[in-house]
Amino acid sequence: MDNDEFKKIARLKSARWALNALAEAAQHIRTCNRCERIFLTAYDAYTERLAEGERANSEMQYAMHPSDVWSMTKEILVDLRQCESWPKMA
Ligand SMILES: [Zn+2]
Fold it and tell me: What is the pLDDT of residue 56?
Protein backbone atom coordinates (compact mmCIF):
# COMPACT_ATOMS: atom_id res chain seq x y z
CA MET A 1 0.00 0.00 0.00
CA ASP A 2 1.45 3.36 -0.98
CA ASN A 3 1.32 6.47 1.16
CA ASP A 4 -1.67 8.02 -0.69
CA GLU A 5 -3.76 4.88 -0.19
CA PHE A 6 -2.83 4.81 3.48
CA LYS A 7 -3.89 8.47 3.86
CA LYS A 8 -7.18 7.83 2.08
CA ILE A 9 -7.98 4.87 4.32
CA ALA A 10 -7.19 7.02 7.37
CA ARG A 11 -9.49 9.80 6.12
CA LEU A 12 -12.35 7.38 5.47
CA LYS A 13 -11.86 5.81 8.90
CA SER A 14 -12.07 9.31 10.39
CA ALA A 15 -15.20 10.06 8.35
CA ARG A 16 -16.93 6.93 9.68
CA TRP A 17 -15.92 7.84 13.21
CA ALA A 18 -17.35 11.36 12.75
CA LEU A 19 -20.58 9.97 11.31
CA ASN A 20 -20.98 7.61 14.26
CA ALA A 21 -20.34 10.50 16.67
CA LEU A 22 -22.97 12.59 14.89
CA ALA A 23 -25.52 9.77 15.09
CA GLU A 24 -24.77 9.15 18.77
CA ALA A 25 -25.14 12.85 19.56
CA ALA A 26 -28.49 13.06 17.75
CA GLN A 27 -29.72 9.90 19.47
CA HIS A 28 -28.65 11.24 22.85
CA ILE A 29 -30.49 14.54 22.33
CA ARG A 30 -33.61 12.59 21.38
CA THR A 31 -33.53 10.41 24.49
CA CYS A 32 -32.08 12.64 27.24
CA ASN A 33 -34.62 14.93 28.91
CA ARG A 34 -31.96 17.48 29.82
CA CYS A 35 -30.39 17.71 26.38
CA GLU A 36 -33.73 17.60 24.58
CA ARG A 37 -34.88 20.57 26.69
CA ILE A 38 -31.71 22.53 25.79
CA PHE A 39 -32.19 21.67 22.12
CA LEU A 40 -35.91 22.55 22.07
CA THR A 41 -35.30 25.83 23.92
CA ALA A 42 -32.66 26.84 21.38
CA TYR A 43 -34.88 25.73 18.48
CA ASP A 44 -37.81 27.71 19.85
CA ALA A 45 -35.69 30.84 20.28
CA TYR A 46 -34.21 30.50 16.80
CA THR A 47 -37.56 30.02 15.08
CA GLU A 48 -39.06 32.86 17.12
CA ARG A 49 -36.41 35.13 15.62
CA LEU A 50 -37.36 33.81 12.18
CA ALA A 51 -41.01 34.63 12.86
CA GLU A 52 -40.00 38.22 13.61
CA GLY A 53 -37.82 38.54 10.55
CA GLU A 54 -38.13 38.29 6.84
CA ARG A 55 -39.93 34.92 7.02
CA ALA A 56 -42.70 36.33 9.22
CA ASN A 57 -45.42 35.52 6.70
CA SER A 58 -43.87 32.34 5.41
CA GLU A 59 -45.09 28.82 6.21
CA MET A 60 -41.45 28.14 7.19
CA GLN A 61 -41.43 30.62 10.05
CA TYR A 62 -41.91 27.78 12.57
CA ALA A 63 -39.40 25.39 11.04
CA MET A 64 -35.68 25.20 10.42
CA HIS A 65 -33.93 23.54 7.53
CA PRO A 66 -31.91 20.54 8.80
CA SER A 67 -28.66 22.23 7.77
CA ASP A 68 -29.59 25.13 10.07
CA VAL A 69 -30.32 22.67 12.86
CA TRP A 70 -26.73 21.43 12.67
CA SER A 71 -25.45 25.00 12.91
CA MET A 72 -27.71 25.71 15.88
CA THR A 73 -26.64 22.48 17.59
CA LYS A 74 -23.00 23.48 17.21
CA GLU A 75 -23.79 26.72 19.05
CA ILE A 76 -25.26 24.84 22.05
CA LEU A 77 -22.69 22.04 22.02
CA VAL A 78 -20.85 23.43 25.06
CA ASP A 79 -24.04 23.12 27.12
CA LEU A 80 -24.88 19.70 25.72
CA ARG A 81 -21.42 18.33 26.51
CA GLN A 82 -21.89 19.16 30.19
CA CYS A 83 -24.44 16.34 30.43
CA GLU A 84 -22.96 13.46 32.42
CA SER A 85 -24.46 11.00 29.91
CA TRP A 86 -23.22 12.80 26.78
CA PRO A 87 -21.55 10.31 24.39
CA LYS A 88 -17.80 10.34 24.99
CA MET A 89 -16.85 10.50 21.34
CA ALA A 90 -19.37 13.20 20.31
ZN1 LIG B 1 -27.94 14.56 28.00
Answer: 63
